[in-house]
Amino acid sequence: MTVDLAIPIQIDRDSGVALHTQLAEQFRRAILDGRLAAGDRLPATRQMAAEVGVSRNVVLACYDELFAQGYVEGRHGSGTYVAHDLPPTSERTLPAPSGTPRWLRDIPDLAPIDTDPTARIDFRLGRPSTSLLASDAWRRIWQAVASEPVPSGYGDPAGDPRLCEAIAAYVRRSRGVICQASDVVVTSGAVQAIDLVARATLLPGDTVAIENPGYPVARAVLTSRGARIVPIGVDDDGLQVEHLAEHAEAPLLTYVTPSHQYPLGVRMSLARRMALLEWARMTDGLIVEDDYDSEYRYDRAPLPALAGLDNDGRVAYIGTFSKLLAPSLRVGYLIGPAPLRERVVRAKRLADYHTAWPVQQALAAFINDGHLERHIRRMRRHYADKRAALARALEPVADRAILRGLEAGLHVYLELEPPLDAEVVRQRAFDRDVAVTTLSGYVVDGSARNGLLLGYGGLSLEEIEEGAAALRECLTR
Fold it and tell me: What CATH number has the domain bearing residue 69?
């Protein structure tokens, strides 16, 4: 390729060093540190001279020096190129600061990056399947978006009106949440929605109640915004609402995953939902409802969303397309009362201004043309088959391990009976190239429950059966 003269070239006419030598030294450094690669074409001498502000003879002398030293080679009638026979250069990285600078203090509760070693069969959470996505329809939609003129300005931070309307109509149909397009804010995933609510409502030291065990990323986001975390236990009916009153200061926010508790998989009972809404009304608090995968439910009718039961503007409802379609889309949404939405939109403008326009256009068309709901119906059957295969495969060890959270979602909780130890089983499974997760990272304080989390959404039936067979072996030895 031809080298762009955006490569920084500096000429110091007062240095006493010949101009062609200065040029040659800067080209040498660019070649040695990898900014210029073997085979890159250097600019023509006239172009180079005009850009740098020197005579063409200076550039000719520079190129002659580089040629004599073996850094470049000439091709008759074609130009000057970086030589191909130079030894490979190591990739340069930005220099690290010396010592420990003041700004590099320890910041607690930043969400860790997943650096766990990979396994051939990976039961870790948050991985849906994209194998049955209607690829022909998806391609047609993207081709249509690509044919539209790109807007010249920034979009609405609240989201493209077409997508906001599509989301509002979908949530009204699927979750019974009474809302309009004006109630929706499009976000770059559910995590950003949580962060925007925190920005819009929290001051340092405010208390936030979360499920324990619960979603560690949400906990990290809230803590990074200055929240004091109040962990509330979870049982088979979901968040133990009665424990909220045990704290001297009523939490300003309560973050919950009522449709499929993350990570235990239980559903919050209707009585608990009504009690939580009454608690928020009495204490003037806000409930953050993360409804991350409620579309995938099996055997039992869905319970109404908290936002669908709310008559007092006490719920911020968060949804995401990561589990429905693919995490790589990075699109979620927030539906909340007008005063909250106005603050969230201002925070969204500061965060990234708006979610990418092409993605919003494509997703709006996907929903409006009926593809999303057809995809959900297809995937519900697909995931139900996987769930059933996992349950069958683990049935022989039901006396040692009990599957919980089977009613909905893309993962289950495998509770281990004593004397089995979850960490020992996890390590033994990994030795068999099977990755599972314990509850240790999901607990705020105290000891974690003795069990494993199994995300099955992104695995094939064959992988589920093979991985479950390895788990059975670990559990019976």
Answer: 1.10.10.10
